[in-house]
UniProtKB/TrEMBL annotation:
Domain of life: Bacteria
Residues annotated as transmembrane: 34-62, 68-91, 140-171, 199-230
Keyword Membrane found: yes
Keyword annotations from UniProtKB, A to Z: Membrane, Transmembrane, Transmembrane helix
InterPro entries: CysZ/EI24
Native species: Croceicoccus ponticola
Annotated signal sequence range: none
Compartment(s): Membrane
Membrane topology type: Multi-pass membrane protein
Protein name according to UniProt: EI24 domain-containing protein
Keyword Transmembrane helix carried by entry: yes
Length: 242
């Protein structure tokens, strides 16, 4: 029942997150995290293109364009498209990793406006970097594991999208909850959100990441919504045990 109540409040949590987008502090944080995420995503896409180009040259020889006229131009086009797709896919992982690095700022912005009186513990920058890296590696590994299942469903057209959506919903829900709870956890207490709430939270962010323009805001909106959900669920827990 507790998990159902938390799940019902998800639309309200996102509404509160959207309402905070006009805050100048939020705008500064968004601009900073979006720019860094874009640079990293493009860099990863470009690195993949360079590696693929090097691989093609190593397999067919550096003079393959002379052997088959026009193939060089075709390879540039194909590699360019691959780079764009890779950068788009990398955005999901990179943007969440960058957001985790700035999670303290996001959580503090939400808490200062809605949950005054809380006393989160300060996380050293090194620990923030480790959390961000661990989350990025976990997301990369999970998506690589899901890749064969997605490829097996490629003939269904929508199958791969569903597989990646479900996998990333589970991942993102857990990551977003933890980035809030780790700053307030005391005496090893369990996080207050159940699986359904975490999954619906993650699925909402996955949906936002698929929408142009909104995908730039999705990491912040997810983190802000997670802050509301975690604190409200924790307040309900304390009220029941009081």
């Amino acid at each position: 029942m507790q998990d159902a109540i938390s799940a019902i409040s998800i639309p309200q949590a996102f509404a509160l997150a959207f309402a905070q987008l006009g805050d100048r502090r939020v705008i500064r944080l968004l601009v900073k995290s979006i720019l860094i995420s874009l640079v990293l995503a493009v860099a990863l896409g470009a690195a993949l293109v360079v590696l693929m180009g090097w691989g093609v040259g190593a397999i067919f020889g550096l003079d393959y364009d002379q052997q088959v006229p026009g193939v060089g131009v075709a390879m540039v086009v194909v590699l360019g498209l691959v780079g764009l797709i890779a950068a788009w896919l990398a955005w999901r992982i990179v943007s969440i990793a960058v957001l985790q690095f700035y999670a303290d700022d996001v959580v503090a912005l939400v808490e200062s406006g809605h949950y005054a009186g809380l006393s989160p513990r300060d996380l050293p920058m090194g620990e923030q970097a480790r959390i961000a890296l661990r989350g990025a590696v976990r997301a990369l590994v999970a998506n690589l594991i899901a890749l064969p299942f997605a490829l097996a469903l490629v003939f269904t057209a929508i199958g791969p999208a569903i597989v990646f959506a479900l996998v990333n919903a589970v991942l993102l829900g857990r990551e977003l909850q933890d980035m809030v709870w780790i700053r307030h956890q005391r005496d090893g207490a369990a996080a207050p959100l159940g699986f359904v709430s975490r999954f619906l939270l993650g699925l909402s962010v996955v949906g936002l990441l698929a929408v142009p323009i909104l995908n730039l805001l999705a990491p912040f909106l997810g983190a802000a919504a997670a802050t509301h959900l975690v604190h409200r669920a924790a307040l309900r827990q304390r009220a029941r045990h009081a």
